[in-house]
Amino acid sequence: MTGRGAGRRRKRATKCTTTSKKKKPLQNQQSHIHHRKKALSNLLSLIASATSSAHSFLSQNDLRLLPSQDLSLESKLASVTLSICTLSSLLSSPIPELPLSPSPHPPLSQCWFDRFLAAASDDSIHSNAKWIEVFRMSKSSFILLLRNLNPYLQNSVPSVSPNHALAAALYRLAHGAPYESVASRFGTDAATACRAFYVVCKLINDRLGHLFEFRADINRIIVGFGWISLPNCCGVLGFGKFPIKGELLGANGALMVQALVDSEGRFLDVSAGWPSSMKPDSILRQTKLFLGVEESRELLNGPPFELTKGNSVPQYLLGDSCFPLLSWLLTPYPRLSEEDSLSSTEIAFNSVHSCGIGLVKTAFGRVRARWQLLSKIWKEECIEFFPFVIVTGCLLHNFLIKCSEPLPDENMDHLWDGKLPVFKGELSERGQRTRDVLALHLSKASLRM
Predict the structure, then answer these.
(1) What predicted TM-score, i.e. pTM, was given to this entire model?
(2) Residue range 299-311, pLDDT digits in tens
(3) Which of 81, 237, 248, 298 has the CB geometry, 3.0–4.6 Å to 380, for a possible disulfide?
(4) Within its chain, how far is the Cα of 151 from the centroid?
């Protein structure tokens, strides 16, 4: 019995020793996890404190920062804040009372726009530069635009003053700012900022549509093209392409915008909202411009211009190579193969034609540079209203030219360099004759220079 008792005691002692050995690594692991959580909590507290200081800096200096800097810093701080909150929620003991400011901007009673108006109330060069920097137009142009839209804004967005609604819409259009950011700067909520934006775009389409001056200003247009060796030319026709994200329009889907511009880069006619899957000539034949020339005969019905005795050209447009050659739409001479060479007269015409077509690309590039919302890739859910926003940008472009506002510097990042397929189909005989006469004239003119 004594031997058996001693054996049992040895077994129990061995078992206790084994259990003790198992507990020690577990305790060490738990201790290690506790220390890591504590270190992480301390680190998050430091990051949260730094983020709070950055919020404070932003709220005190938002009028001094460029809008791009202000929006970028706000976006980064929002991401950091979200990351801190997510990490702290994963800890078993969340960080108590993170020292984070809920908003980088002061209360709504002192919203950013009100402080901006107070700071830029005079007519100094510095104040005017701030207006152009923030709203892409001078204070005087803003007031003129507000005067045009004011009666309609009061009824459409009664909860926001007309100048706040217009300024908020221009701010979003100029900088591509999200509605939450717009709302915090203009003393409203995101839903109201969204409504104000679409109301302003719709009103600009309705009230400023006369700024597409093709019919009313044809003489000025012809004179302008005469200065760049295109007699009796009434405009240049081309396309802009605006990408859309989603499956609705397929891979690399986009909205196509057909635009007619003059020699100074004004938009004379804009037809927006065509899917990129459509052929350019199919788009052309469904536009009001085409119907106005081919059916109602309201457009391009002026007198021909005599180049030399017995040689004259009717009123015409220049068109990109994706369009058909028509009696009134002159496209460049094509090279059917790599071996083909063009004559000197054809080269002279194509050279001037290329300069003309560049006007469309430049006009769209300037619109995108000024209104950066149009440089963003839009979601397919917004596809129904996107054409209104594009036309808004084009109309404001014309409005600011009329106000003698300086044009924005061209930014190659905003230009679309995509090539549309060359039209392959029947060519107008009258169009070919007009192109040949004009080509001969341009060739002779180049020799005299």
Answers:
(1) 0.83
(2) 999 999 998 888 8
(3) 248
(4) 28
